[in-house]
Amino acid sequence: MRDPEDPGLYWTNPMAVHFSQVKVSNLICADHEGKVVEGRYAINRAGFVLHAAVHEQHQDIIAMCHAHTVHGTAFASLGKPLLPISQDACAFHEDHVVIGDEAGKVAVEVKGGNKVANAFKGVKAAIHQNHGLLTASRHSIDSAAFWFIALERCCQQQLMVEATGATPRLVPEDRARYSREHVGSDYIGWLHFQTIWNDLVATQPDMFD
Fold first, then answer.
1. Alpha-helical regions (H) of the chain
2. How many whole angstroms separate alpha carbon 21 and alpha carbon 41?
3. Which among 86, 106, 83, 112 has a CA at the least distance from the CA of 96?
C-alpha cells in the first residue's frame, strides 16, 4: 500500500515470512527503486517490480493486492474474463481486465512491470494470464483486500460451473451493470471487509506487534 504521508513510498509484506507470521513490526517500507527505507527484511524483487509499476503509473491507487492463489491462478491460465454468472461476479462486470503481456514470465525487469501496470487502469481488478490475480483500490486497503478475496471466490465458482460441462445462464447486461453499481463500489468493498477485520482483531491480536 502507498504510504499515507509520503506517496513516493509504499509498504509491503517481507520476503521469506509466512503470511500467518506477518505483523506490523516486520512490514517493509520501500521506495520505487526497491530500496528498503524501513524494516529488517528483504523485499521480493518480482513483487516489487509489479507493485511499484502500478503505484507509479496510477497515482490514485492507494493499495494493491496480489497473490498466487489456487483458484485464481488456475483461472488465469485460461486467459479469459469472468462471466456474470452470479450477483457476486457482477461486482467485477466491466470492472476487470485480462492482461496477456508478460504472461507466465517472472516480473523481475522494470519493463515487464510497466507493461502489466499500463494495462491495469480504470478498473479494480485484473487477471494476469498464467500468473494470478491483482486487485487495487483508490479508497482503502480494506477495499483492495476484500475485492481480492471476492475475486478468488468468483474464479472458483466459474471453474466449478464450467466443470459441469453445462452452459451457465448469464445475468443480462443491464442487470449486471445495475448490480455492479450497487455492490461493486470501493465503499462496499471497504464495508464488507469490516467483518473480516473485526474477526482478525479478535482472533489474531499479535498481528499488531
1. 45-57, 70-76, 87-90, 110-119, 141-163, 173-183, 186-203
2. 13
3. 83
DSSP-assigned letters across all residues of 75-128:
HHTT--PPP--SHHHHTTTTSEEEE-TTTT----SHHHHHHHHHH--SSSEEEE
C-alpha cell at 59: 497515482
* Residue 55 and residue 46 in contact, taking contact as beta carbons nearer than 8 Å: no
**Rounded Cα–Cα distance for residues 83 and 170 (Å):** 7
- Rounded to the nearest 10 degrees, how much is the dihedral formed by the CA atoms of 141, 112, 73, 31? -30
β-pairing, 28-31 with 9-12?
Answer: antiparallel
Cβ–Cβ < 8 Å for 95, 180: yes
Structural domain spans, the chain: 64-208
Using a 10 angstrom Cβ sphere, with 0-12 exposed, 13-18 middle and 19 or more buried, the burial of residue 130 is middle
Chain segment 101-151, per-residue pLDDT in tens: 777 677 666 777 888 888 888 899 999 999 999 999 999 999 999 999 999
Q: Are 116 and 53 in contact (CB under 8 A)?
A: yes
pTM above 0.90, yes or no: yes
Collapsed DSSP state (helix, strand, coil) of residue 23: coil
Q: So what CATH class is 64-208?
A: alpha beta
